[in-house]
Specification:
six-stranded mixed sheet, binds flavin-adenine dinucleotide, alpha/beta, 415 residues, nine-stranded mixed sheet
Length: 415
């Protein structure tokens, strides 16, 4: 079968690779010159298999006034006269019940564990260089009440296969001595030894090169798909500025762009962009001021990961600004907050980046057949977890397209 995969972010490249490995003839097409130039470019680098609870949760609604009013809030909501924003926000609110959030968490764990196992199997076949580390993750809390809530989540997730430890402040510092400046405020943390990290862009580009080398794979960069041409319930061509791409099946993996591509066909995907920022700080050899393991500063929603000789710091969820311009006030706030925890880091050298997460209200990606036509499939909407979930999502979609019984229940992710 000839499959046209649209979108060369981490999700599209992974999908194209898995389909090509199965023997399909694959054309991967992207508007940009290079793969991973959009949301997959400089994200937090976390392969966060045990931290997949959706943003929508029971604690969220009381926090909304803070998001609206406080300039230093890690989550910021800018209301717009935009029906898309309000529809998404309404569905987000509906997903904020304890039962919905717990159900989504359990469903997401099935996909994240599939993703972890699929990535490990992939790396045995293709030893890709992307700064991959399996060095664990520590989430630190300043507020005892939040640590207690996290303890309850650890207990819930243990029933779904997660192996995590609750640590007191002293144990946190023993795990990660670079957190010393936080000691007076530290309530404790959750440590997960099985968590991993890596450079998403390097992963995507390395896999892209492997894909190009596979028989039957073609890549077409600098090629925007303007529309999908439907005839008799099937897509017959992906229209580009240089003519149409005719294929037996199409996979839409265009991140946030999936919304615009499918809307003219009558499928309104519940996707909205949640903007975030990252800093990439060059490190000297054995830099003692930087964490060696992945760290999340929970109250500030800041994640830290070492990617070779760079410390990647990512943060913030800004709803209502869907462009990737850098707001200097948000970067200044982020640097101030980072300095409070890791005062020895030289942030003046940091590369700054902003990206937009393609998010669904319930936090689950959309993977499966599209209603708009018989031969269109979707793999999009991975929100804050696209790198973590890419391999599992690609494996799940490949199974669905082949008519095989997938390794996990696909129903929670059906578009
Ligand atoms: C600040 C920040 C931190 C993050 N941290 C993490 C993290 O630590 N761990 C994690 O797992 N995830 C993280 N994420 C989320 C992750 O980066 C995204 O979920 C993921 O990159 C989405 O990948 P994608 O392939 O779906 O989309 P994208 O990477 O955006 O790729 C979509 C591609 O489609 C192309 N495209 C769009 N429209 C068209 C068209 N019409 N024709 C042709 N091509 C088109 C674009 O050019 C682009 O290349 C973070 C995101 C942000 C913003």
């Amino acid at each position: 079968m000839h499959v046209c995969v649209i979108g060369a972010g981490v999700v599209g490249v992974t999908t194209a690779y898995f389909l090509a490995r199965e023997g399909h003839c694959v054309t991967l097409v992207d508007a940009r010159a290079q793969p991973a130039e959009v949301a997959s470019y400089a994200n937090g680098g976390q392969l966060s298999y045990s931290y997949v609870a959706p943003l929508a949760g029971p604690g969220v609604l009381p926090a909304v006034p803070g998001w609206l009013l406080r300039a230093d809030s890690p989550l910021r909501f800018t209301p717009r006269l935009d029906p898309q924003q309000w529809c998404w926000a309404l569905r987000f609110v509906q997903a904020c019940t304890a039962s919905a959030s717990q159900r989504s968490t359990a469903q997401m764990l099935t996909l994240s564990y599939l993703s972890r196992d699929t990535l490990h199997a992939l790396l045995e076949r293709e030893p890709l260089a992307f700064g991959h580390q399996r060095n664990g993750k520590l989430i630190v809390y300043r507020t005892p009440g939040l640590l207690e809530k996290a303890r309850a989540l650890v207990a819930y997730q243990a029933g779904h296969g997660a192996r995590q430890q609750v640590l007191d402040a002293r144990q946190c510092l023993a795990r990660e001595p670079a957190l010393a400046a936080l000691e007076p405020q530290l309530a404790g943390g959750i440590y997960t030894a099985g968590e991993e990290s890596g450079d998403c862009m390097a992963f995507t580009r390395a896999l892209f090169e492997r894909l190009r080398a596979l028989p039957g794979a073609t890549v077409r960069m600098n090629t925007a798909v303007q529309r999908l041409k439907r005839l008799g319930g099937r897509i017959v061509s992906a229209q580009t500025g240089e003519g149409g791409i005719e294929a037996d099946a199409y996979v839409v993996a265009t991140g946030l762009g999936s919304r615009d591509l499918l809307r003219p066909l009558g499928q309104n995907l519940p996707l909205y962009g949640l903007k975030g920022y990252s800093l990439s700080v060059p490190l000297a050899q054995d830099e003692p001021g930087a964490p060696a393991i992945s760290v999340t500063d929970y109250e500030r929603r800041i994640v830290y990961a070492r990617l070779g000789n760079v410390l990647r710091i990512a943060a913030m969820v800004d709803m209502g600004v869907q462009d990737s311009r850098i707001d200097p006030r948000r970067i200044a706030l982020l640097k101030r907050q980072v300095r409070e925890v890791f005062p020895r880091l030289d942030l003046d050298q940091a590369l700054q980046w902003a990206g937009v997460r393609p998010a669904t209200p319930h936090g689950k990606p959309l993977i499966g057949a599209c209603r708009a036509a018989d031969n269109v499939w979707i793999n999009a909407g991975h929100g804050a977890l696209g790198f973590t979930l890419a391999c599992g999502s690609a494996a799940l979609l490949a199974d669905l397209m082949a008519g095989r019984r997938p390794a996990i229940d696909p129903a929670p992710f059906a578009p």
